[in-house]
Amino acid sequence: MFLRLLFVLLIALNIAVGAWLVLGQDDAHVRSVTDPGVPVLHLLTERPDLVAAASVAAPAAVEPVAAASTDPAPLSAAPSTTAKSAAASYRCMALGPFASLQALRSARSKLESQTARSRSRQEQSQQSRGWWVYLPAQASRTQALAQAQRLSDAHIEDYFVVSSGGQPNTISLGLFKDPANARKRRDEVVAAGFPAQMTERVETVPEYWLDVVVADDDPAAWSQRIRSLGVGSHSTGCF
Q1: Is 170:162 a contact under the CB 8 Å cutoff?
Q2: What is the pLDDT of residues 92-102, one digit of tens each?
Q3: d(CA 112, CA 100)
Q4: 91-126+205-235: which CATH architecture?
């Protein structure tokens, strides 16, 4: 009986030792689930180096968004700049006439830094050369000389007979700047019995003008500049 019990105890002890050897050892003795030479696959979440890199990159990815939220600040100044330029007003003036092309160029150079735009132009104008008192042309040179003799007999001096040009055989009685003096001379000759007439002599001359576009912020200063040039001014169409 004792031997039988001892035999059962030895069998139970062997079973316990065997179970401990099989179940209680480290995984290093467990057979690999992969073939020899093939690396073991791991999930990305199981790699500590990638997890650490992801945790560092996450705040960096947020930074551009935060920075972008502050970028529109300079754009807020753009409407004020545009409004300021739109509020500025300009006027267009014609300066002149200048006595010569050289005088115009000199004025344009002086005003260049104070004008938004400028342009020069030349026009033709009729300029008075005085008032002419005369006797109408006679049919021939002989008749003109005879009329001149009658003027001399009437004690009317300062005349000459026109022999060439556009009005031959006309007797000129004088050219006057002042129309009042011209009328006085005509009336004297008419009173002596001669059909004297008067007319204004004009000629076509060039005029030089400078058109400018200027800021309308200081009209008084511009009036002073124009006076210093010795010319007049008036409003003109913008260009």
Answers
A1: yes
A2: 999 999 999 99
A3: 19
A4: 2-Layer Sandwich (3.30)
